[in-house]
Amino acid sequence: MARFFVTPEEFSGDFLVLTGENAAHGKVLRLRSGEEIIICDGCGNERVCTVSDVSDGQISLVAKAVEHSITEPAVQVSVYMAFSKGDKFEHVIQKSTELGAYEIIAFPSARCVSKPDEKSLKKKLERWQKIAASAAEQSGRGRVPGVLVMGNYQEALSRAVSSDLAILFYENERSTTLKMALQNTPYHSVSLLTGPEGGLESREVGEAVSAGLQVCTLGTRILRCETAPLCALSAVMYDSGEF
Amino acid sequence: MARFFVTPEEFSGDFLVLTGENAAHGKVLRLRSGEEIIICDGCGNERVCTVSDVSDGQISLVAKAVEHSITEPAVQVSVYMAFSKGDKFEHVIQKSTELGAYEIIAFPSARCVSKPDEKSLKKKLERWQKIAASAAEQSGRGRVPGVLVMGNYQEALSRAVSSDLAILFYENERSTTLKMALQNTPYHSVSLLTGPEGGLESREVGEAVSAGLQVCTLGTRILRCETAPLCALSAVMYDSGEF
User: Fold this and answer.
1) Arithmetic mean of pLDDT over chain B
2) Is A140 in contact with B221 (CB distance < 8 Å)?
3) Percent share of chain B, pLDDT over 90
4) Are residues A139 and A201 in the same domain?
5) How many CB atoms lie within 10 A of CB B66?
6) How confident is the model at residue B114 (pLDDT cuts 50, 70, 90)?
7) What is the pLDDT of residue B117?
8) Pairs across A and B, CB distance < 8 A
9) From A110-119, A168-177, B84-93, B193-202, the region with the lowest mean pLDDT
10) In this structure, are B189 and B99 located in the same domain?
11) How close does chain B come to A139, measured CA to CA in Å?
12) Where a domain ends, among B47, B68, B89?
């Protein structure tokens, strides 16, 4: 069943209306009267709706009772990725959303060669949030992960340690595995931090330890900066019993 | 240290020579006399070598003792992915290699909309094997995963069940998780099968069960056909103690 995210205001009442981009998307899907779709408030609530009318720019719906989404994972994983070149962050937003991330956060680090300036950042954030929304619809999520940007590295560290577990992955770490970290602490929320193309500086790893993060390995192979966060996220979802 | 894969013949002796694409690659990296690199035979053996001379089309090396690669995982994972559109298989080859896959295998299934014909297949296989070799070099692997193509679905199933564990992922499976499958059987080799964009037909899932595969879920969210194999591979590597 096709899935549409609407604002909390558009979500209440027995008769709902899809407008704007949602209506356009419904047109593309050739929705017809009598078909059923799912409407989500983006916060984990959803309703099955029956299309009652399709007209220019709007699709009218008759909504059933509100249900709690069953596709949201029990664990809240925050994926922190250092700014990287090209469209790697967009790739990670799409895949992390499918894999169940709670939120996806870009942060600057010493060896980042590509940081968007203030001016382009606003547009990029809008675009990134749309990628998350689209991936959430396609993968059947009950909420759209927030996409955030940290102003500096310290801000990322301070925010990350508010999770039950905050883990930084570093290619020179040999002994502490992700499994050790996950099995030593009961967790409901986890922050996963990974570096840019050139890796993190050892000074930055020291700062993370001082801030209270654990430093872990993702194995002996060197993962690309867009592979590491998805590998770690998959492992946490597996460990927490999602599949 | 830069890493080069050579043939077993080029690997023996105290004085080695890089030629062809390896020499060209060394030129790109601006290798100079005195620098150290790693030479791999692609079968899990490697040697640290010192560059002794760089000339047109060849790089001469003085080789140290043969060592066993420490970056190859203990578990042998075969990633079977149904033929898919665009460059998704190439993406999966690159990422699976980084993540430690033993081999990567494309197979046809009923809803595959894109199957290369006999004529283009040979060229594609060469290209795919190069992607694996390049990813193996970059990620520091000790061997290059084989890239194979199965002629039909049954062939994929028959081959897969020769592993200690053969698992097919199906979005309509609700109860059996990957964790259940991995924790019920000691494993040294695992085959992971995932379907194409349109999913597997229920008839095909039945055939897999008849052939001896287990059917598992990857969670309640719908993963894209290029996300599912990498998620499953990451989880198996995690479960087997790689990180």
Assistant:
1) 95
2) yes
3) 94
4) yes
5) 12
6) confident
7) 87
8) 108
9) A110-119
10) yes
11) 4
12) B68
**Shared-domain flag, residues A92 and A138:** yes
What is the average per-residue pLDDT within B68-75?
A: 94
B134 and B40 within one domain = no
Whether residue A175 lies within 8 A of chain B, CB to CB, comes out as no
Its domain, for residue A99, covers 76-239
Secondary structure (3-state) at B151: coil
Q: Examine the domain organization and report whether B187 and B211 are in the same domain.
A: yes
**Ramachandran assignment for B13, one of left (phi > 0), alpha (psi -120 to 50 degrees), beta (any other):** left
**Ordered mean pLDDT values, 10 residues apiece, chain A (243 residues):** 91 94 93 96 93 94 94 97 96 98 97 87 95 96 96 97 98 96 96 96 98 97 97 98 97
B8 and B115 fall within a common domain: no
Same-domain status, A150 and A230? yes
Beta bridge partners of A68: A45
Please judge whether B222 and A70 are an interchain contact, meaning their C-beta atoms are less than 8 angstroms apart: no
> CB B223 to CB A179 under 8 A?
no
Residues 6+ apart with CB under 8 A from A52: A15, A33, A60, A61, A62
Same domain for B92 and B61: no
**B99–chain A Cβ distance below 8 A for any pair:** yes
Is residue A49 left, alpha or beta, with left meaning phi > 0 and alpha meaning psi from -120 to 50? beta
Contact (Cβ atoms closer than 8 angstroms) between residue B237 and residue B243: yes
Q: Whole-prediction pTM value?
A: 0.94
A234 touches chain B (CB under 8 A): yes
Q: Which amino acid is at A43?
A: C
User: By the CB < 8 Å criterion, does B77 face chain A?
Assistant: no
